[in-house]
Amino acid sequence: MENKKIPCSVQVLTLNSGETLLTCLKSVRDFAEIVILDGNSTDNTVEIAKGYRTKIYPQFDSNESNIRITDFAAVRNRGLKIATYDWCLILDSDEYLSPQAADEIREIVARGRENEYFIYNLPRKYVLEGKEVASLKPTYQLRFFYRPATLGFSKRVHERIKPKEGFGVGTLMYPEFVPLEDIKTLRIKWAHYLDIEQDKMRDITFGMFLIKVRANVVKFLKYMLKAAYNTMRHPRAGVPFKYEFYNAVYHLQIIHRLFINLIHNTLKRK
């Protein structure tokens, strides 16, 4: 007898995601609702989504094709309002959930109010050329939660769900998988993120600039040390150095963009 669907809404953002969406949707086919928020794709994204009886909505009230998101939190929150179920799982269109994680989520949802936690970090394991990068430790993001326990998403880029006061955060045992994109694609994506970062800090003050510089220097050093560690300990099995290197450089580029804003603001006040 076929298992009943998991009473949980899955939210996926898409934009010309035809190459990866099928794998993503197959991994969550046991969930009762899949909400697709699409940026008016011009490839076969919508056709693939329809094949899985998903609910498809535009990210924006516009007929313009291929719209890039400039406020990820706003789009994510739009999806939360659309969702039918209180339990929600967030996936990107190039990611896919492990079967074990789906079973774990089924058990948590079934326990209802007896759960110790209502917001969960989802382990994220990385895949390169079809193989799991076993030498790279998983990262964690808040991707599975009970909506009434949250305040919605914040941050225009690198958006995060905000837990309500009094709700602790748990961690799922089983992961999702995140394929590493080619460097050219990543650089285009990061350039878009940099544009958003620069725009949201348009009126940056000198004090805030110093705070942001410190934070991004720390992140730069973290990624460089991580790259060196993986290269020395796993020269063949680890993530290629260039991925961690460009992660590090991204944070230097943020500092550069913020410095441009600071100079512009200083000249404007004179």
Short summary:
By secondary structure, the protein is an alpha/beta fold. 41% of the residues lie in helices and 24% in strands.
Topology readout:
Layout: E1 6-14, H1 21-27, E2 31-38, H2 45-50, E3 55-58, H3 72-82, E4 87-92, E5 96-97, H4 99-111, E6 119-128, E7 131-132, E8 139-146, E9 150-154, E10 160-163, E11 170-171, E12 176-179, H5 183-200, H6 206-233, H7 241-269
Parallel strand pairs: 1-2, 1-4, 2-3, 6-11, 6-12
Antiparallel strand pairs: 4-8, 5-12, 6-7, 6-8, 9-10
Output the keywords.
single chain, 270 residues, alpha/beta, Spore Coat Polysaccharide Biosynthesis Protein SpsA, Chain A, 2 domains, 10-stranded mixed sheet, two-stranded antiparallel sheet, 7 helices, 41% helix, globular
Q: How far do the termini sit from each other?
A: 74 Å
Q: Helical content, roughly?
A: 40-55%
Shape: globular
Instruction: Assess the beta-strand content as a share of residues.
Output: 15-25%
Radius of gyration: 20 Å
Report low-confidence residues grouped into runs of 5 or more. Answer: none
* Average pLDDT reading: 92
CATH level 3 topology of the largest domain: Spore Coat Polysaccharide Biosynthesis Protein SpsA, Chain A
The string of secondary-structure elements, in order, is EHEHEHEEHEEEEEEEHHH
Number of helical segments with 4 or more residues? 7
CATH architecture of the largest domain: Alpha-Beta Complex
Instruction: Summarize the biggest pleated sheet.
Output: 10 strands, mixed
Structural class: alpha/beta
CATH superfamily of the largest domain: Spore Coat Polysaccharide Biosynthesis Protein SpsA, Chain A
Strand segment count: 12
> How many domains would you count in the coordinates?
2
Q: CATH class of the largest domain, anyone?
A: Alpha Beta
